[in-house]
From TrEMBL:
Residues 570-876 form the Peptidase M60 domain. Signal peptide: none annotated. It comes from the Bacteria. It comes from uncultured marine bacterium EB0_35D03. The lineage of its organism: Bacteria, environmental samples. This is Peptidase M60 domain-containing protein.
Amino acid sequence: MQSFAGSCADGSDPVKSISADGTYFVFECSNSSSESTTVGNQEYFEIINLTSNDDKYYMELLNFSASKIKNIPADQKTLAVFIPIGAYIRTIENDAKSYGMTSDLYEVLLTQTQMDNVFKKIDDFYENLGCANYYDAGIETTKYQIKNGIWTSLKISLCGNKNLIIMIFNETLRPTNAPFTTNWRDYTLSHVTLHETYHSFQKKIIKNCHRVDMPHYVFLIEGGAEYFSTYYMLERENRLDELNNLMLEQVMRRGADSSTLVHEGEPHMKGLAAINLMIQQGWVEQSSILDGSFFSDCRGVRQFLLGSDKLKYLNDNWYKIEKHNGNYRFNASMSDDEAMAQKYRIETVSIEESYEDILLKSARIDAKQKISGFTFTQMDFHKMVKKDGVLVKSAPETEITGWYQFIPKENDWHTGIIFFEKGQLKWKNEAGVEWNLQPDINNNKLITGEDNPYQTEYEPDFMIIKSSEKSKSVPQSEEYPRHLFRLSQETVPSISNIWFQKLSTENLFDIKKDKILIESMQKNPLDVIAHPGAQFTPGLPIEGSSPVVHKFQINKIISPTDVHIHMSGDNWFSTGLFASAGQKITIKVPKDLVNAGLKIQIGSHIWGDYIFNHMDMRRFPYITYQWNLDQSEVIVNSSFGGLIYIVDPVNQQINFPKTSSWSISGAYLAPRYIHGKTALNDWKNEIRKYPAPWAEIESDKVILTVPSHAIRDLDNPDDLMEFWARAIDAAADLASISRVREFPQRYVTDPNWQWGAHAGYPIMMAGPWYPYLLNHKKIGLNYWWGTFHELGHNHQMNDWMWDGWGEVSTNLWSVYILETIAGLERKNTWDGMLLFPGKRQKRINKFIDRGRSFAILQADPELALEHLLQLQEVFGWELFMALHQSYHDKPVHKNVSDNEKIQQFVIRTSQITKTNLINFYKEWGFPIERSTIDFLANFNYPSKDLAIAQKIAEAIKSSEKSSSKKLPDNSKFSRNRYGFKCNSGFKREGNNMCTKDLAIAQKIAEAIKTSEKSKSVSQSEEYPTADYNTKLDEVCRGLINNSWNGYLDINKNEFNSKGYMFVVAGEDGRCESGIGRAKENALNECTKWQEENNIIGVCELYAEGEEVVWDGSVWDDSVKASKSASKEVSTLETNESVDYVERLKQIKALLDSGIINQDDFEKMKQKIIDTMN
């Protein structure tokens, strides 16, 4: 395989040097040649490379491109930036900040420091090239894309002949040493790099050549770059003989529709076809595309776009591509329909008379009875017949020889022919692959041999389908092929096979294909088979257990008199039964409820599209299905199975008579505890042992759906349900609604999520979070906050929810329930210690420093919660109860603006408290209208000053009544301190070193802040003292428990069991972690999260592969370094040689820059004066 060594114009290697500012490498070809044309072809590239690939990899690609281009301007300069990103997160359609395109957001791997350095280098490049006065919005767009991890590959033209190439991509495409290899990932990255580099040599014809009478011609720009990259990728692999075929096949598969070239969509594919057609017509020399000279002036472009019929010819024919004798070609005589049939050959395909056709006329083999096709590789191939050169379905016939096709046809392997050649029966597909067949008519099969490429993957033989047989997997009413699922036990997403990245086209196809087949099967329950993913989620009943016949009643009378929370969607009634995947369920419906709009549902896990489009995938997305109960007896079957529910659509409001009797047969008993009805002994001795893999703990307030293994040892469900009854009632009280619920709230844990939750009906919780539904004895500084946060979403009122407030007001329910029902102190409610007094004070101080903008509140739910807590700490929870009641009594009008909602909120809270709160809300940056001020002035309410500066002490006094209180036992996690922090006068260098910090002004500021701490809370209370001998895995036990299994899965499936995990434990007990394929990547990720969360500590190697390797040695070194630093700073602080004048200048500079305020300045100045004395 060839590489790019010696890729300068003269055949030499580029010379690597350091840029003028010493921050990055510059690669330049030498100017040894005396010919001016050679000098003109020099291309000086500068690189910013933060990927794990060697710089040389990219430089070979860049300079190779330069060596092929003709007449490069002498002042041409290009900065190429290569940025790695992590796992796929979500998609933004029509992203206005990214050229209005669809933006795929991935995990950002760069630390803030790395990102700042990249931005500085880009700005410096821009400025040093004389572009500083030439603003280009592309620079800001590039920074936006880097900040948000948006997968990108593009070239931006700057001023003059200056360019920026930006490539942001996932490191799973990391190349090997040689750019051109047969590895498709290497091929893709190399191909895209060549494509974008070519753009940097195209003259900026869009700006220089455009005229108002010219159509849009981006197809030429993109087509030229695609032709260049495709050509040289094939040349380097000695495959140029495939150039035309490969190009036209790609166009057919990806771009062939009858729209014009200037139409939106796939311009590089349309352009590739157009360039190819221009070359074939003799209008353009191939060499002018490959050396870029076609784009060196405007003549080449304008000849196709102005006063010429060439553009019309290209528009009419670029997509008219056919396959002829195994090769692709343009055919201008084709109609649009014929051209489209070539692209979308699903049920028909044009086929020329072939050698095999001729052989068919001379040999036949009789199957003894009529056949309709055969099954091979779990797919049905239908008997076809040729009519007018087109294959169509054939009626069953006795001859085995002939044409066959899998429908829908997706590739050339799906159409083929069985024929005799020299006495040997053969199969040959359109891809040109063939193998021998041995007839075994008595056993209804054609035996294949070792030349069958699928010999070891599936059932190797062709199994003949007789016309009288019906496929067991095909719905009788459907023409869907009888092949099994695309996904197998090994490939289906699961906890052990996580699909981390945004789905590829193949993944997308597999899932959608399986979904179509499932839905088609389920129309006829006799045809349903279990999907391979069912064994993972929802799982299967305990082996050896048997289905039952179960009778039950649903006693529910709708009472519309009370105020309830009405959730959109359906209301589910549990049955305590579980359907196993692929097993028929029969339900007998009460006579008076047939055709009443009820449905039967199998499965608890919803949000299929949400999972499919936005999340890492740990289960098949679509596993829950419903059927109408429109007959007295209904038979259903699910390919996945799941808990069984009777569903009452919310808009039906159906009453269930007490005499209604239901019966379900074929299902398995599931553990189900109904508070107040199920006998405790029955639960302990029998029910909790039922075989279904999912269980439900239920009351009239809430239903908890969790894995059965989580409740096998649950001895006291009554105590749990009583706690939940109090919590749900508390949620109702805060929302000012009736405690009597029309339907219970529902929680379901979902194995697909490893962290997080989603409100709605049901509330979906991360799979590992079932302890935060069941273990109510261990609440505090953990994810119980999230449990009630989602409950808050189901209760919060839209009347006072404006932009940014959806994640703010919901947190009131977390605080209220955890304080009043769980009995926690406020500071111990939110995980991450986010409500510790010091953290609250820090958030507010930062808000003040940033100018108290309302937009800041809208973007920061943690900060915005503070103003609500202030109101509560002065006026009590009754304020919010009365506020919600006021909205029930007098709702705001529909479709009111956010501003109107804000004014109403200000007025109502003032009226309820009989206090004029205008000044309070102004301090919080609320946009208060004059009409609101004038309206409240009419009431002569006292204006209680809740100034933010005064509030800090008030809030701490009210919420932290005693500074000597000890944290409760269940808060051990927050008592631990770990890591190290450089003492005053020193700064941190690397991971565990402290060196003298010459920024004495900053040292003084830190000293003053330490000495001026609030008297109302002690440091020992906010950050309790810790045993420095505490082990890392004890301090971070919560984080490690939640992260370890996920790391093991990723390590096994992505890192080939050779990954790394780093953990940092902060002085305040907070922890973060980072993982990666390489040690450096894992450390960088850990450092990124450490910096983002302001955790003071050291990122330490915790695990290599699956082995925990942490031994505490880094901590030991850190303690020694910290103690040594403490002694040195003591000496520094007493050094009489300090230049006091310089120190005063430094703190004055801090004041002038806004880092400190006037009060801080005066204190710091006095501190310096005192030192002088």
